[in-house]
Design goal:
This protein has 298 residues and is an alpha/beta fold. The protein folds into two domains: 136 residues, Aspartate/ornithine carbamoyltransferase (Rossmann fold, 3-Layer(aba) Sandwich); 149 residues, Aspartate/ornithine carbamoyltransferase (Rossmann fold), CATH 3.40.50. The protein has 13 helices and nine strands. A five-stranded parallel beta sheet has the order 7-6-5-8-9. InterPro entries: Asp/Orn_carbamoyltranf_P-bd, Asp/Orn_carbamoylTrfase, Asp/Orn_carbamoylTrfase_sf, Asp_carbamoyltransf_Asp/Orn-bd, Orn/put_carbamltrans, OTCase_ArgI. It is found in: Cytoplasm. Pathway: Amino-acid biosynthesis; L-arginine biosynthesis; L-arginine from L-ornithine and carbamoyl phosphate: step 1/3.
């Protein structure tokens, strides 16, 4: 039976924690110059309906370093759901490649691709979920703490696909998650119904005991028309020097990038040489995705 990686929620706690440790080990091997060509000759089709920097490069390099090959397919080339149906694309790519990664808008598109593909499908991002990012975040925190159970993570900003995947990550790892948003921008109740994430509208209270503070853009890709409205609603939710005075001195700062500097986060915070671990997060997309690829294909 084939495995997919569409949502963290689809996998049990043992699997998610194994993937985090596997990513940690693969990163250590890479840093030591040890080859780990575990996917020799394997191929990954990468469908991009949304622009990408980290997703594109990290998956491409991951396959190369694992001994495999990645093939980039742009929205214009594929026309997924317009030029050609999702089931037909899924069935065709399954004949050519060993796995498929998709970065798209609607979550149903990723689900449909997984339903009709005979090879593993990875969710590189949808409007609903961003599981690969959350796995990289998990690795980043694990490197610092050595154990995610009881780690206090505070997310401040818009409840979006990253937030949803962090909620699922917390369920599987024991992370104590606080989500801080304006009143009308909280996570969907369906996302929080089965977990113990603490919801609050008070940034100062949210960061008081935080080990990690995480933020993301206020207007996600595809929401550009809402930017002015959201900038006004979130003006008191900026992660800045004043907010960090309310947090523990050793708190670490996270952001999944790209960042809108001067909006959700200030330069002084994202560039802090001690507290910011933003670019470790970015690097860890590579190592976390290697672990996912090996899990699905070996």
């Amino acid at each position: 039976m084939k495995k997919d990686f569409i949502s963290i929620k689809d996998h049990d706690a043992r699997t998610i924690n194994h993937l985090i440790r596997q990513a940690y080990n693969l990163k250590a091997q890479a840093r030591a110059g040890k080859k780990h060509e575990l996917l020799q000759g394997e191929s990954l089709a990468m469908i991009f309906d949304k622009p990408s920097t980290r997703t594109r490069v990290s998956f491409d390099v991951a396959m190369y370093e694992l001994g495999g090959h990645a093939i980039n397919i742009t929205a214009g080339e594929c026309g997924l759901g317009t030029r050609e149906s999702v089931p037909d694309v899924a069935r065709t790519l399954s004949r050519f490649c060993d796995a498929i990664m998709i970065r798209t808008f609607g979550h149903d598109t990723a689900l449909g691709l997984a339903e009709h593909a005979s090879v593993p499908v990875i969710n590189g991002l949808t409007d609903l979920m961003h599981p690969c990012q959350a796995m990289a975040d998990a690795l980043t925190m694990y490197e610092i703490t050595g154990d995610l159970k009881g780690v206090r993570l505070t997310y401040i900003g818009d409840a979006n696909n990253v937030t949803n995947s962090l909620i699922h990550l917390a369920e599987k790892t024991g992370i104590e998650l606080t989500v801080c948003t304006p009143k009308n921008y909280a996570p969907d109740k369906k996302m929080t119904a089965e977990n113990e994430a603490l919801l609050t509208n008070d940034p100062s209270a949210a960061v008081k005991k935080a080990d990690f503070i995480y933020t993301d853009v206020w207007a996600s890709m595809g929401q550009e028309k809402l930017a002015a409205q959201k900038n006004k609603a979130f003006k008191d939710y900026q992660v800045n020097g004043q907010l960090l005075k309310k947090a523990p001195k050793n708190v670490k700062i996270m952001h999944c990038l790209p960042a809108h500097r001067g909006l959700e986060i200030t330069d002084e915070v994202i560039d802090d040489p001690v507290r910011s671990i933003v670019f470790e997060q970015a690097e860890n997309r590579l190592h976390a995705q290697k672990a996912i690829l090996v899990y699905l294909l070996k």
